[in-house]
Amino acid sequence: MTTTELTRTGAGPVSSGGLGQAFRDTMSIAWRNIRGGLRVPDTHIYMFIQPIMFVLLFAYVFGGAIVVPGFESDPLAYRKILMSGIFVQTMAFAVAPASVGLSDDMHKGLIDRFRSLPMARSAVIGGRVVSDLANQSAVLIIMMLCGLIVGWRVEGGALSFLSAVALLLLFAFAMLWVGAFIGLSVGNPQVAASAGLIWLFPVIFLSNAFVPPQTMPTVVRTIAEWNPVSAIVAACRDLFGNPSPIASDAWPMQNPVLAAVLWCLLIAAVFAPLAINKYKKAATK
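^ thats the sequence. predicted structure below, dont judge the formating
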């Protein structure tokens, strides 16, 4: 039977039911967040519109002006390489809902209410990550359907396709922990919205997501080749069987799948403990 005890800091009762109870608490918070989102459909509508807008802009506005090195004869080559960049960018933008959601909960006092309940301390953050990951999965499905419309195709096998999807969700999972840390570190949801995105734009565009790095100056090209985003984009292109116009001797570009997995694990390993520690410190105030 699960027991309840008071923390020495007076922060409220804490569940001592072990990992099983922590998992159930996490799923309860995740379902609470998902139900709350379903009651506000406007949030999901705008969440879907932004990535679709990026696809249409890059495919039909910029796509005709960008020639993919080595694939000059294929008029749809840029659209094929574009989608992996859009997928990765969209998963990276998972930082925003995680940071705003947790910051909003803190601002409204919901976190304090959760602390008064006999539940695992990690459930609040874990529930947010799980619910946002479910949302990102839905967004990814919409994105893939949109990609098929503009000419993107999966040329690899089913296993490679599923591996690419798993990699994208792993990246989203890692970035959600970054968002959780930001949301718990700033003062209010408005600041969280800016802090969660403003640094992402140079990270995304300083990569191979939308243009080949070989067109960049030497120093910038080196940074782009070692950018985690570049490794994940290159890995997705390989797994989807799409063109990959990367001529580079950099290790991440030569081993994109391994580099992508390592980058995702490193990001999660750094920011998950930071976010949980930030939450624990807030709980003792």
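Residues 1-15 have pLDDT under 50 and may be disordered.
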